[in-house]
Automatic annotation (TrEMBL):
One of its GO terms (biological process) is L-serine biosynthetic process. This is D-3-phosphoglycerate dehydrogenase. It catalyses: (R)-2-hydroxyglutarate + NAD(+) = 2-oxoglutarate + NADH + H(+); (2R)-3-phosphoglycerate + NAD(+) = 3-phosphooxypyruvate + NADH + H(+). GO terms for molecular function: (S)-2-hydroxyglutarate dehydrogenase activity; NAD binding; phosphoglycerate dehydrogenase activity. It comes from Mannheimia succiniciproducens (strain KCTC 0769BP / MBEL55E). Belongs to the D-isomer specific 2-hydroxyacid dehydrogenase family.
Length: 410
């Protein structure tokens, strides 16, 4: 008997936003997924609510806020892909409660961010942003005042993860002395040294570069009080998230000449599109490099991200694997060539696995393989079964109390 419960690939709809790279489309096409709605820009919230109703997969970057309210309209949604590192723009818990894994690309743009920051360090240490602005205005101030080589200077990195540690290595290759602060104990690369307090880092380094994720604990990490702890004449760089720095306090420190300059790529409020003007108290400073959240925007990064996240979509859709999902129990699965594969996502409550297994006993269906992972909230069990007809089986599994969703793979 043919299986009537899994969805034909041509009916599985992908909604891709914010101009994700062509590689993503290529990966999906190669895997047989052709039902793709592609947008170069982010959608307005109302447009998104409409578009997401029919989508099984959605791909986005940092401009799309996938709030719990918007997810309420996403009744067919199977998975979310952030074509970037940050996942703070997605209501992760709400997605998990609906049984929707969220994938991202945790490494693909990290080198691009580290290279941008390195360039900014070199430019700010030589006063190039201000010199460039002055010459554009017709002013000719040939001077070495306040202009320095980076060799022998102290770089302080806040957050020694994928980006911070790469920056550490390339900065050392220019002769910089690297120190870092991280809430976790981290293996220092090269000659870098971990310091035990943020205050120590801020007050002793010539350049501070922020590389922490957006979390409740990193909100306003660089508050007015912390900005006041920066070494006089130092440089502050933020290519992490806009919520991490108190921009008004930074503007005040620049106004008073307490710090030498800054480079800011991310802002508390970023324009939703190119049509919206960018407002910031930092716009007036020649010694501040302002960029429109382009730390990860290189051809290389975007190509890699397109391939990586689309491949995670394909793997989840074809095979059920949730490896590297950020909000979901991670299951890495072998291929299921002959058996039928059933995915069951449920609230993590005592006894539910027994009830699932009882369905197979009652139906006299042999389980060829079973994979289970749980987290505090949900359980994800994948069952390979030796049966041709899974229609009744799926209905019975769906009716178990505590089930969030169940499906049979194509
Ligand atoms: N400007 C841009 O276009 C881009 C920005 N990003 C941002 O950069 C962030 C960092 O990226 P990765 O290095 O890949 O992340 P990661 O997760 O590899 O590293 C983050 C590090 O920060 C540390 N950390 C967390 N809270 C901290 C705190 N309160 N104080 C000190 N350290 C803390 C963690 O222990 C970890 O070592 C991302 O979360 C993202 O928001 C990432 C890519 C592009
Ligand atoms: O490229 C983007 O849209 C966002 C990059 C970013 O901030 C990230 O990867 O977390």
């Amino acid at each position: 008997m043919t299986n009537k419960v899994s969805l034909d690939k041509s009916k599985i709809k992908f909604l891709l936003l914010e101009g994700v790279h062509q590689n993503a489309l290529d990966v999906l096409h190669a895997a047989g997924y052709t039902n793709i709605e592609y947008h170069k820009k982010a959608l307005e919230p109302d447009e998104l609510k409409e578009a997401i109703k029919e989508a099984h997969f959605i791909g986005l970057r940092s401009r799309t806020n996938l709030t719990a309210d918007i997810l309420e309209h996403a009744n067919k949604l199977i998975a979310i892909g952030c074509f970037c590192i940050g996942t703070n723009q997605v209501a992760l818990e709400a997605a998990e409660e609906k049984g929707i894994p969220v994938f991202n690309a945790p490494f693909s743009n990290t080198r691009s961010v580290a290279e941008l920051v390195l360039g900014e360090i070199l430019l700010l240490m030589r006063n190039i942003p201000a010199a460039n602005a002055q010459v554009h205005r017709g002013e000719w101030n040939k001077s070495a005042a306040g202009s320095h080589e980076v060799r022998g200077k102290k770089l302080g990195i806040v957050g020694y993860g994928h980006i911070g540690s790469q920056l550490s290595i390339i900065a050392e290759s220019l002769g910089m002395n690297v120190f870092f602060y991280d809430v976790e104990t981290k293996l220092p690369l090269g000659n870098a040294q971990q310091v035990s307090t943020l205050e120590e880092l801020l007050s002793s380094c010539d350049i501070i570069s922020l590389h922490v994720p957006e979390l409740p604990s990193t909100k306003n990490l660089m508050s007015a009080e912390r900005i006041a702890q920066l070494k006089p004449g130092s440089i502050l760089i933020n290519a992490a998230r806009g919520t991490v720095v108190d921009i008004d306090a930074l503007a005040e420190a620049l106004e008073q000449g307490k710090i030498h300059g800054a480079a800011i790529d991310v802002f508390p409020k970023e324009p939703a599109s190119a049509a919206e003007a960018f407002e910031s108290p930092l716009r007036k400073f020649d010694n501040v490099i302002l960029t429109p959240h382009i730390g990860g925007s290189t051809a290389e990064a975007q190509e890699n991200i397109g391939t990586e996240v689309a491949s995670k979509f394909v793997k989840y859709s074809d095979n059920g694997s949730t490896l590297s999902a950020v909000n979901f129990p991670e299951v890495s699965l072998p291929e299921h060539r002959t058996a039928k594969r059933i995915l069951h996502i449920h609230h993590n409550r005592p006894g539910i696995l027994n009830k699932i297994n009882q369905v197979f006993v009652d139906e006299n269906i042999n389980i060829a393989a079973q994979y289970l992972q749980t987290d505090a909230k949900i359980g994800y069990v994948v069952i390979d079964v030796e049966t041709d007809d899974s229609t009744d089986l799926l209905q019975k599994l769906k009716s178990i109390e505590g089930t969030i969703r169940a499906r049979v793979l194509f």
